Amino acid sequence: MQDFKGKTAVITGAASGIGEALAHEAANRGMNVVLADIEAPRLADVEAALRDKGAEVLSVVTDTSSKDAVFALADAAFERFGNVHFLANNAGVAGAKGGTAWSTDDAEWDWVMGVNWKGVRYGVQAFVPRMIEAGEEGAIVSTSSIMGLNTGTTSPYNISKHAVARFMEGLYYDLQMEAPKLQAILLCPGPIATEIVKSTRNRPDGVPVEEEGSLGHRGEVFHNWLQEEGMTPEEVSGMVFAAAEDGSFYVHTHPEYVTASFLRRVKGVTSEDKLPLPLPKDFIEG
């Protein structure tokens, strides 16, 4: 995808973090921007900032865990701008509590998998057929994580991100065969200075949370570390649009982390012992 000016971008999770940065990058490139997020006040602030830049903007309060809501978002975008050329399935939550495979409750699983995984699937189902029908060049970006490529404990976040990675790899081949004008892009961020750890502010009723951060005191510490050491969302957005321009599929913000963690998983899968390798002492669970 080479020409962005006058084209239309739809971005979920657009009220903060990577989504907000992608929205600004799209506006800077002269695109119409459709903003989607569950946080209405923050969404309004981003809309106002983009309008100040002179961008054509539509904002739609959207719960990406709802199929009806995502399809309504698509209806609004296509009705307003005619076609969509850049779709970023970016909305995501970290979860509210830690737990084992048997102790994490259903409400936690449903919330995290609903936003992180179903939101991506619904986005593809709602937008891609109409993008194919329009017959124009475009890109579909979905946000996974470095945690979607490695191994670890039973975190709903990590498992949701594994689902996104495998789904997008499948979409890549589907598009090559059926719609070569459209490009699939898998974003696998490492440590980014966002508020993902504090996504419990948007948790639905019935999802319990510990008092400090999304995973207790450890989550608060991790949040602070991300703000100090993480890559900026603006850097990430530039990498995503560069991938759209050069035809890349994988976007790794921290390739050294990806290589180390992915190879550790592969070595475990292929080991003669037929056992996963031990997790390193400094392993950070998502």
In CATH terms, what is the fold-level topology?
Rossmann fold
- The helical percent reads 40-55%
CATH evolutionary superfamily: NAD(P)-binding Rossmann-like Domain
- Arrangement of strands in the largest sheet: 3-2-1-4-5-6-8
Radius of gyration: 18 Å
Output the structural class.
alpha/beta
**Total domain count:** 1
CATH class membership: Alpha Beta
Summed up, the helix count is: 8
Distance between the termini: 32 Å
Oligomer: single chain
Topology as H/E string?
EHEHEHEHEHEEHHEH
The unreliable regions are none
- How many strands, which pairing sense, and closed or not: the largest β-sheet? 7 strands, parallel
Q: Which percent range describes the beta-strand content?
A: 5-15%
The CATH architecture category equals 3-Layer(aba) Sandwich
The total strand number stands at: 8
> What is the average per-residue confidence, as pLDDT, rounded to a whole number?
90
Mass-distribution shape: globular
